[in-house]
């Protein structure tokens, strides 16, 4: 079967695809011996490089959590910041990810920037930022971000798309008329990493993997086989 001249057989599609097509991907060299002593400066450098290279939505990241039984889950979220206190993202406390983090406050992040053949993996314990910081972060964002937060009920069962449309319209109206409206359930989470791994792809499959591990007082660096 074909749609628009393209086969829709999954196996045929998979075999036809290529990773790191040189027409759209540049694989820069990475010398791990020049890496800084701590991971944050290297993350900042790689993030800026991804932006400069035209990577689409480089601030989106896969967030992995686990429920009370230890079963994993993953979704895409947006990075809200990264500094010496950790990597930050946000959600409602009552959402699935919020409930997971309430029960098991440990998570992992994975950034993927294919335009440069790079990944960054971060994992560690997660804590909630003070409420005033979460509200400040929310209100510094767009009207749409506030409207989405005001709509609330994230991860709950939805009766119909019409129900969501009504709730969303009301939330947009309130966000426009009351831009300082607080959203008590909105939570800014901060992941303080135990490990940060940098992966640089190589055309000859000699990929470079540099892992930072925290000892509590300082970071150790080690190379991993790809």
Automatic annotation (TrEMBL):
Transport recorded as keyword: no
Required cofactor(s): FMN
Domain Pyridoxamine 5'-phosphate oxidase N-terminal: from-to ranges: 50-163
Annotated ranges, domain Pyridoxine 5'-phosphate oxidase dimerisation C-terminal: 186-226
Superkingdom of origin organism: Bacteria
Stored SUPFAM superfamilies: FMN-binding split barrel (SSF50475)
Family: Belongs to the pyridoxamine 5'-phosphate oxidase family.
Protein name: Pyridoxamine 5'-phosphate oxidase
Species: Streptomyces africanus
């Amino acid at each position: 079967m074909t749609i628009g001249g393209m086969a829709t057989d999954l196996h045929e599609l998979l075999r036809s695809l290529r990773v790191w097509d040189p027409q759209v991907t540049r694989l820069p060299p990475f010398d791990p011996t020049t890496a800084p002593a701590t991971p944050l400066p290297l993350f900042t450098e790689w993030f800026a490089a991804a932006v400069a290279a035209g990577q689409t939505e480089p601030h989106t990241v896969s967030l992995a959590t686990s429920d009370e039984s230890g079963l994993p889950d993953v979704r895409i979220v947006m990075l809200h910041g990264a500094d010496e206190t950790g990597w930050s993202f946000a959600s409602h406390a009552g959402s699935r990810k919020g409930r997971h983090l309430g029960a098991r406050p440990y998570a992992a992040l994975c950034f993927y920037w294919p335009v440069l053949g790079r990944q960054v993996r971060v994992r560690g314990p997660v804590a909630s930022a003070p409420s005033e910081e979460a509200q400040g972060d929310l209100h510094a964002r767009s009207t749409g971000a506030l409207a989405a937060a005001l709509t609330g009920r994230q991860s709950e069962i939805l009766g119909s798309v019409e129900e969501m449309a009504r709730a969303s319209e009301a939330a947009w109206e309130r966000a426009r008329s009351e831009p300082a409206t607080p959203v008590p359930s909105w939570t800014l989470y901060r992941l303080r990493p135990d490990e940060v791994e940098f992966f640089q792809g190589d055309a000859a499959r000699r990929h470079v993997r540099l892992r930072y591990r925290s000892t509590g007082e300082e970071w150790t660096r080690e190379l991993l086989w790809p």
